[in-house]
Amino acid sequence: MDNVLSLNVDMSTLAVVRSADMGWQASLSPTVWHKRLYFDGPAEAAIVTSVVRYEAGGEFPTHHHPGGEEIFVLEGVLSDEHGDYPSGTYLLNPDGTSHAPFSKDGCTLFVKLRQYGGEGRTQVEMNSGALDWQPWNDSGVWQKPLYRQGGFREWTQLLKLDPGAQSPPHQHPNGEEVFVIDGAIEDEFGAYPAGTWIRYPPGSSHTVKSPKGAILYVRLGGIAEK
Question: What dotted CATH number matches 4-127?
Fold first, then answer.
């Protein structure tokens, strides 16, 4: 099999993947499965965005994080030698860190690999469930900041849309990446149920609404056209 794969690598176009419609694929561990949403590069050193599932008792060998690793725990509890991370935990493991993750009872994660390079990044461990929602605007949209650091373009946060909420029209000069954690959203380009990953290209604009409410992972910046 060719060791160079690509999936959704054209940053100049809208990318939409409904992960709930995908089957689980085997990983390097027989007890860990994944659904690739974005994949670019050699199999052993690719830039990857994926949904990952650990079986009960699942584990992954000790590994390093060249280019950084970002994890959001969607369900269950992820663990490693440093601690336990329940649903809602946000982790950013910068270049130079390593761990041996496992899950006693199983868990599901949203994971980004090799997308947080650069020296001086702060390691982050945050239980978003312990944070209060902050008003983002007066249109029924709330936020929880997850990661933003001077000197780097990425800005990661959770957004909650109340039922019937609608954002004002807005533009994304450096692109936007969204993963629908719960509920569903709509915009001019389509409807996106829970489990959908959307990447909007630099310079795009839209208006987002949620008839029944939604919780989103949102990443701004860090998207360059290819």
Answer: 2.60.120.10
Tokens 């990446």 sit on residue: 177
| Pairwise CA distance, residues 72 & 90, whole Å | 5
200, 223, 163, 194: which is closest to 51 by C-alpha?
A: 194
pTM metric for this prediction: 0.95
* Per-10-residue mean pLDDT, the chain, length 226: 71 96 94 96 87 97 92 98 97 94 98 94 96 90 96 95 93 94 97 98 95 97 66
Q: What is the pLDDT of residue 115?
A: 94
- Degrees, nearest 5: CA angle 174-113-26: 130
Contacts of 78 (CB under 8 A, 6+ apart): 54, 71, 84, 85, 89, 101, 102, 103, 107, 109
> What whole-number distance in Å separates Cα of residue 189 and Cα of residue 14?
9
Beta bridge partners of 165: 210
pLDDT at 2: 42
* 168, 190 contact by CB (below 8 A): no
Assign domain 131-220 to a CATH class. Answer: mainly beta
Q: How far apart are CA 207 and CA 209, in angstroms?
A: 7
Greatest CA separation found in the chain? 52
Q: What is the structure's pLDDT at 225?
A: 52
CATH 2.60.120.10 residue ranges of the chain are 4-127, 131-220
